Each structure stands twice: as C-alpha cells, then as structure tokens.
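job 3f2a | input accepted
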Amino acid sequence: MYNMGKDTIGIIVGGGPAPGINGVISAATIEAINSGKKVMGIKGGFKALFDGHKDIFMPLTIDDVSRIHATGGSILRTSRDKPENAKAKFKTLLSTLKGAGIKYLITIGGDGTLYMANWIEREARGTVSVVHTPKTIDNDIPLPGGFSTFGFQTARHVGVYIVNNIMEDARTMGRWYFITTMGRHAGHLALGMAKAAGATLALIPEEFPEEKLSFKKVADTLTGAIIKRITMGRDYGVVILAEGISEKFDLEELAHYEEVERNEKGELRLSEIQLGRLLKSFVIKTLSDMGIEVGIVDKSIGYELRAANPIPYDVEYTRNLGYGAVRYLLKGGTGSMIVSYEGNIRPVPFVEMIDYATGKVKIRTVNTETETYEVARKYMIRLEKEDFEGQRLAHLAKTANMPPEDFKARFAYVLGAPVGP
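job 3f2a | predicted structure (421 res):
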C-alpha cells in the first residue's frame, strides 16, 4: 500500500520545448492525485529555484491538466537559464524545494536537465526523491533498445511536412535549398527528416570523424552533389544540415569566412554561425568560378518543431512516462530516469547515464556503421567512389568545365580516403 498522506510531488521542466511535455505533466498529475498526493508545478525552469523565488509554485488539479496532453508547449513554461554561480546557490534551490513541501520531484528535460536531476538527488541525501523523464527533439539521450526521446517523433513528422513543401518549391523554381536543423551533439533529427522526406542529401557531424573539420570540405561535398545532380539533368535539390557540424569546424579556418562568437558557457554559438548562409555563399562562388550559375536559398528549421502539438505516438509515450514516474516515486524509487521499453515502463539509474570520466551525461550519436544509416546514405545524391572512374568521371568533369584529372584532384578528397591512382 502507498502512503496516502498529502506529500507533494513537484514537476519541473528544463531546456528547450519539445512536443509532449504537457502529456507528462498531465499523466503525472492525474496519477499522483489519484494516489492521494498533492501536485505542484514549478514555473519557469531551474533558474527561479536557484534565485529562491517563492511565487513559482503552481498547484495542479485534474481539471487543470485533463485535456492538455495533446497540446504543444509547456503549461509550466521552461528555461535553459541557470546562474553562473550555480554551485554556490544550490543550497538555495534545495531549501526552496523543501520550503514548498516537495518530497518528490519529477524533472522533464534533456541531458542538461538530467544532469541537474542527478545533482539534486545526490545532494538532497534522501530528503527529496527524484525521477527524470527524457525529452529532446535531438534524440541524443541513450535510451534502451534505441527508443527515441519523447518529442523527436513529432519534430521529425512536422519537419518532414515542411521539407516536402520545400522540395516541391525547389523543383518548381529550379533551385537548391540548404536547410539547417537542430542537433548540437547528434544528427538524428537531420538524418531522420532527410530520409523520411527523400531529401537529396543530409550532412551530419557523425560522418566526419576528424577532430577538426574543414569548412571547405563540407562546402565541397555540397558542390560535388550539385554538379552530380546537374549531370543527371536536375537543376534542383534539398540538403538537410545538422547544426552540430559547426561545432566540429576548424575555428582558425572558419574565422576566414565568419566571425566566431561563443556563449557564456564558452560554447560556439551555432545559431549565430548561420551554417546554411555560409555554405551557400561558398558554394555559389565555387560553382560560378566553374561557369555554373545555381540559385541557392538557405533556411533554418528548428523553432517551428519544438512546440508543435504532439502526434499520437508522443501523446501515448508521454502518458506512459508521466504515469511511470509517479508509480516509481511512490514505490520508494529515486535517482532514475523512466523509460518505456518492450511494453513495460522501467527505471534506468542515473549512474548508468553519467560518464563519470567527464562528469557529463552520455550522448547518443548516429552510428554510421549500421544498416539503417547505410540505407539513408544509399538514397542520397552525392559524390561516390565510382564517380571518379571512367565515363562517370568524364561526365562530371564536363559539367564542371574541368579536365577529368583536375576534377578528381579537386573533389575526391571529400570521400575521406584516396580514390584510385
């Protein structure tokens, strides 16, 4: 039997929005109240807790949440912000939670929120039980069985709808689109959108193993793809770029093309780099020097995906997670992330999610050695080893107005290995 006292369960959201947040809030609130607990939503993320604000606690009832599961956004809002002196202010955060009578805490978020959940659980020393639900459209938290984080499926679904429209515009207008989408650490979203929409090609950071990636190499990969498409009789195409490519660039080389800015954490400001615009300018000039005039439009797709109404997959998924989080806490559990796996809802301890060599949460990247990646790669139009041989090489070189040996010398390196003699 559960303790049917009026202990309070707190719910907090961290990081960027993702479709399905309200589904977790709804299911957790309903199950908690049906189990005799009070529920307190914590508005605005962790920053207000660090600052000790008392007006951020929002009592939740079943009437408040019964129909929010199919809506986008977050009724509790969310925030990425935390103070620079977070360690010094952590006692304030804990005392603020305890002052509100919160004995149990459900965190909803990505890797940063998971890190925070682990920190709170460890420092609370049993006074606050903590469970985490994995949210990110980047899909970069390593869940068992390869399951996606909630929000990813909806983000991909909405992204594919947008890309399909853009692909038709590209064909109708006879031009190219370079579309950048979210994925700071991993290319799951970019690859998933491109594969499902049948985009011309996708570029993700995982396909470039080098520690310092040449901006010119990425640009030449796109230039080569455009030349190949023209040779095939098509003057249009759509490229999906994962923003995380920017993090791998050789900054000294990149500085020749763009002023590099960093945020307060010292991270490259990916949104400030405008990856698509930079690549567009470089590729247009390269092609123009060959006598090839191509129209290219750069576009970002990201914010349009984050607060979309969840598709049924994510609605069902998040109801499982919210319910499972409460049941786990009320059975005495703490220090785990809740996952749905093979028809069951189970906890994964935080210790399994943290890389204690670095102190950071483990990241799931795209495995480029899998058959599912091979499928994506096979249906892309881009330069391949066979393109640097015989008649294929001759046709490409003719399109580029170059001797075959010059074309090979100019572009073969983008494959990452020597091609022939």
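job 3f2a | Residues 1-5 have pLDDT under 50 and may be disordered.
job 3f2a | closed
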